[in-house]
Amino acid sequence: MKLHGLPGVSARNTAMMEAITDLPPIVVSDLFGIHPNTAYAWAQYAQNSWAEYLEAVQSTD
User: Fold this and answer.
1) Rounded to a whole number, what is the distance in angstroms from the first to the last CA of the chain?
2) Which of 7, 12, 24, 39 could form a disulfide with 28 if both were Cys (CB 3.0 to 4.6 A apart)?
3) Do 17 and 46 meet the contact criterion of CB atoms below 8 Å apart?
4) Per residue in 19-59, pLDDT tens?
Protein backbone atom coordinates (compact mmCIF):
# COMPACT_ATOMS: atom_id res chain seq x y z
CA MET A 1 0.00 0.00 0.00
CA LYS A 2 2.87 2.36 0.80
CA LEU A 3 4.31 1.77 -2.66
CA HIS A 4 1.13 3.23 -4.16
CA GLY A 5 0.85 6.07 -1.64
CA LEU A 6 -2.16 4.63 0.18
CA PRO A 7 -2.52 5.35 3.90
CA GLY A 8 -2.21 2.02 5.68
CA VAL A 9 -3.26 3.01 9.19
CA SER A 10 -6.56 4.61 8.24
CA ALA A 11 -7.40 1.70 5.92
CA ARG A 12 -6.66 -0.78 8.71
CA ASN A 13 -8.77 1.17 11.19
CA THR A 14 -11.66 1.35 8.75
CA ALA A 15 -11.43 -2.38 8.12
CA MET A 16 -11.45 -3.07 11.86
CA MET A 17 -14.52 -0.94 12.43
CA GLU A 18 -16.36 -2.61 9.58
CA ALA A 19 -15.38 -6.06 10.86
CA ILE A 20 -16.48 -5.21 14.41
CA THR A 21 -20.02 -4.54 13.22
CA ASP A 22 -20.27 -7.77 11.19
CA LEU A 23 -18.11 -10.43 12.89
CA PRO A 24 -18.04 -11.92 16.38
CA PRO A 25 -15.42 -10.30 18.64
CA ILE A 26 -13.32 -13.47 18.88
CA VAL A 27 -12.97 -13.58 15.09
CA VAL A 28 -11.95 -9.90 15.02
CA SER A 29 -9.46 -10.61 17.80
CA ASP A 30 -7.78 -13.36 15.78
CA LEU A 31 -7.99 -11.45 12.52
CA PHE A 32 -6.35 -8.25 13.76
CA GLY A 33 -4.23 -9.60 16.61
CA ILE A 34 -5.92 -7.70 19.41
CA HIS A 35 -6.95 -8.98 22.83
CA PRO A 36 -10.40 -10.61 22.91
CA ASN A 37 -11.56 -8.24 25.65
CA THR A 38 -10.61 -5.25 23.50
CA ALA A 39 -12.52 -6.68 20.54
CA TYR A 40 -15.54 -7.29 22.77
CA ALA A 41 -15.43 -3.72 24.13
CA TRP A 42 -15.18 -2.29 20.62
CA ALA A 43 -18.13 -4.43 19.54
CA GLN A 44 -20.15 -3.00 22.41
CA TYR A 45 -19.27 0.56 21.37
CA ALA A 46 -20.12 -0.19 17.72
CA GLN A 47 -23.70 -1.16 18.52
CA ASN A 48 -26.59 1.10 17.58
CA SER A 49 -27.00 2.52 21.07
CA TRP A 50 -24.64 5.31 22.07
CA ALA A 51 -25.64 5.17 25.75
CA GLU A 52 -22.78 2.92 26.89
CA TYR A 53 -20.23 4.88 24.88
CA LEU A 54 -21.37 8.19 26.32
CA GLU A 55 -21.30 6.74 29.82
CA ALA A 56 -17.74 5.49 29.31
CA VAL A 57 -16.59 8.85 27.97
CA GLN A 58 -18.12 10.75 30.86
CA SER A 59 -16.54 8.44 33.44
CA THR A 60 -13.04 9.21 32.10
CA ASP A 61 -13.43 13.00 32.45
Assistant:
1) 37
2) 39
3) yes
4) 888 888 888 889 888 899 998 888 888 776 667 777 888 87
